[in-house]
Every structure is written in structure tokens, then in C-alpha cells.
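Incident review: delayed structure delivery

Summary: a single-chain prediction request sat in the queue longer than the usual turnaround. Root cause was a stuck worker, restarted by the on-call engineer. No data loss occurred. The affected request and its eventual output are reproduced below so the record is complete for anyone auditing the incident later.

Affected input:
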Amino acid sequence: MTRREILSGFVPGSDFRAFLALQPEAILIEISGTQGSTPREAGTFMLVSAASVWGTIGGGHFEYIAIGNARDLLAGSGGTETMDIPLGPEIGQCCGGRTQLRFRRVTDTVRNEMERRQESEAESLPEVHVFGAGHVGRALAAALAPLPLSVTVIETRQDELANLPVPTKSRLVPMPEALVKDMPAGAALVILTHDHALDFLIAREALARTDLAYIGMIGSATKRATFANWLCREAGGERAWLDRLTLPIGGSAVKDKRPQVIAAMTAAEILTALAAYRDRSSS
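Output delivered after worker restart:
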């Protein structure tokens, strides 16, 4: 079988249960151990059927070898249940480490194990709360949807919550600012409602806390100055709080105001902030 035939039918971004519903005859490949520099960590897994694959264990020739072995197992034409692959010149890679793989045919028991694992991982995902489902809010939800995050979009307008990407959650509430106090430590908040006054109320509640990983607001330098004046003169806030506010979101490196571009840049900010918070919390 050629490399093109082995890698054809790649299924990106779908839920593994949807993949298995269409192609129940599959092999689960798991990274059971690693040494040195490797493209993915232990515990990473992918699924391989005769025609398609779901997920990735790191790509490159290393993954190509693993897919071929899985398909040999499926076809009953050989293959092994474990592999120990050096990621060096002999397979055309330069990571320098080693990766051990485990191969199992998907049974009801394996499927149930995968579902329990997914449920457990979902419970520990970092939370991102997007206030506002306008053009940028929907674009941001789409940018965040495939990432390892639990995303909730919050709106006061029911119609704006239509057509959010799966698995985004949504909440329709009359007073979004009241939700901030109940969000867990380490959560990320992005504020981009249709009303600047509402943006300010939400931001004031968020900045009053010191345990959030990221607080961002859409806007401009002028909006930041207006908010700073309101916060300190009318809302009982402190100027030092502004050091924890990202306004405008998305940075200034890319001069493009299309919603999808702002969303991409903001998603990167959020991931960076969540990683920094995690590092601080573990040190």
C-alpha cells in the first residue's frame, strides 16, 4: 500500500464516536511511553480504519508507519500489538526521542474506556466565557471550538445564539455581569457584547477578581481610556486593575479587523494566558 493510500480519508476535527459509528472496524493506537523529544505526549491516541483515520499521534513518517501497522492488524495480514519507534534519521525524522505505541482493536470495552476518558478530560478543561455572540463572538467561538477548552457563549439576545459551533455551550441571561462571580478560578473571559455600557459592567466584575487567567475586551485605545475613567471615577475600581485587562484583544501585530482574524489572534492570547496561569499555579 502506498503512502497516499495509507493517509487518504483523513477525518479532522470530528468526534471519535461519529467516526466509529461510520467505521466500527478500527484500531486504537495509543502512545504508551516516550523518551526524549517527541511530537506528542504519552496518552495521545488516534483511530485507524481501512479507509480513514481520526486524530494524530504526531504526524510524519512515524505516524505513517503506525497507520500501516494498524491496517495490517485490521486485515489480518501481519502487524504487531506494540511498537518502539526511534524518532531519528532511520525514519527520516529528527526529534531524537523514542515513542512506544500500543495497538488495540476497538471493541465495546475499548469504546467505553475511550468515552470515560473523554468525559474525565472534559471535566478538567479550562473554561472560556465569551460575552456576546455578534460577528466577532461567533468567529471566536468557531476558532475556539476545536481546541481543548470548555467554551460558553453568553448573550442577552436569543437570536444571536443560533448556529454556534459544536460543542460550544450557550447561556441566555438578562444580566450577564452577574455570572462572573461564579466562574472558576483560572477561567478566561472575553467581552464583546453589542453594548459598551454592558461591556464595562462585565469587565468591572471580572477585574474585581484576581484569580482569572485572562480578561479581554474588544475595542480601541479610546475605549480603554473611557473605561479607565469610568472604572476609577464611577465604578469604585482601582487603576491597577487595568494591568490585568487586555483591551483591545488580538494585539496590534496584524492590522486586520475582520472578525475571523481578530478571533484567531485572540484565541492565541487566550491559550498563552491559560498556559501561564497553569504554570503559576503549579509552581
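Verification: The first helix runs from residue 3 to 7.
Action items: add queue-age alerting; document worker restart procedure.
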